[in-house]
Amino acid sequence: MKETGAQKIIFDNPLKPVQAYNLAKATGVEAIDRFQLILEIFTRRATTTEAKLQIQLAKLQRELAYAKEKVRLAKMGEQPGFMGLGAYEVDVYYEAVKRQVHTIRRKLKKIRTKRQLHRERRLELGFPSISLAGYTNAGKSTLFNSLAEEEVPVDNALFTTLSTTTRLVKISKRNFLLTDTVGFIDRLPLTLIEAFHSTLEETIYSDLILLVVDVSEPLNVIQRKLSVCLQTIERIGAAGIPIITALNKIDLLTEKEAYQKLESLKDATPKPVPISALYKTNFDALKNEILKILNNYVRAAITLPLNSETMSFISSLFKKTYIQTIKYANNEAHIILEAIPWFAEKVKNHVEKLDGEFEKL
Length: 361
Fold this sequence. Notes:
The chain is of the alpha/beta class and 361 residues long. The chain folds into three domains: 8-107, Rossmann fold (3-Layer(aba) Sandwich); 126-293, P-loop containing nucleotide triphosphate hydrolases (Rossmann fold); 298-360, 2-Layer Sandwich (Alpha-Beta Plaits), CATH 3.30.70. 47% of the residues lie in helices and 20% in strands. The chain has helices at residues 17-27, 34-45, 49-76, 90-125, 140-148, 190-195, 197-200, 219-235, 255-265, 283-293, 308-320, 341-353, and strands at residues 8-11, 30-33, 129-134, 165-171, 174-180, 208-214, 243-248, 272-274, 298-305, 322-329, 332-339, 357-360. A hairpin with a 2-residue loop joins strand 4 (165-171) and strand 5 (174-180). Helix 2 packs across helix 3 (49-76) and helix 3 runs antiparallel to helix 4 (90-125). The chain is flat, with a radius of gyration of 26 Å. It starts with 7 loop residues before the first strand and ends with a strand. Mean pLDDT is 81; it is low at 152-162.
């Protein structure tokens, strides 16, 4: 510590409170473990109320697990990182933390209810949904910006995105909902997975996962991170959803390096497509893969009598389906459209209520 002038010691493995206490006592600086480091990074990156509450919840759940030990050590003598707990009795401190946990869970429940309503409204739109997933700092937000022509925060750092953003994107005249999600990380503590479950579960409800992988890194690192991502997708219950692997940052590789890495990864990655999210390289190939998987559209011919109610319905169809042609003749509207199967069924039911005709083509 003296040689380097370090202000903190970080351990890659978990530390018990007594270990952190003894290390702090011996060195005069705070000692933290991997979990606390991730929490510190998360705290700096959190911008939304939900992300901040989720981080607080993870911190407090950890406090509960170690409350008794931390209070006992704090009373022995003040050490860096032990935050003046000496004034507390164990039971008082434990109950205070429990109350805070209860309050945060109540607030998060309200936010999750609101998120559920938003999800239901998005379903009403009738558009297939795509979730971006991948290891932290793989370039998900850059890909999101390029596909959605949006400006969500992008940074060459861990956990720039700690909450989800959903936008409407158009690929080959068809509308899709694209969601940017929180990045995965190796050995992400279970407490954090639980705390961020509502954010991660956006992936579960998607029709397709775009798994973003940074191929500019050494092959062994890519393979390890890819394995972590696929395991995390399985852990959150999204294993049955189709996956396209966007092998990102090929602009940082020579042609030979890119070829060698693609050959090495082709069997380990589901539907790999090499891209550069920054320069939109090979985006046509990526979009074609997306359309192949999400091309289960129903094509239908609709005939509707013209009146104020049907005109309102036709207006909504322009927003929610892909209308190929529309002609007006003999006081009727003749429409040919495409929609995803479950939404086409809703359209059919509505058309029949309006005394119209619906025919699959």
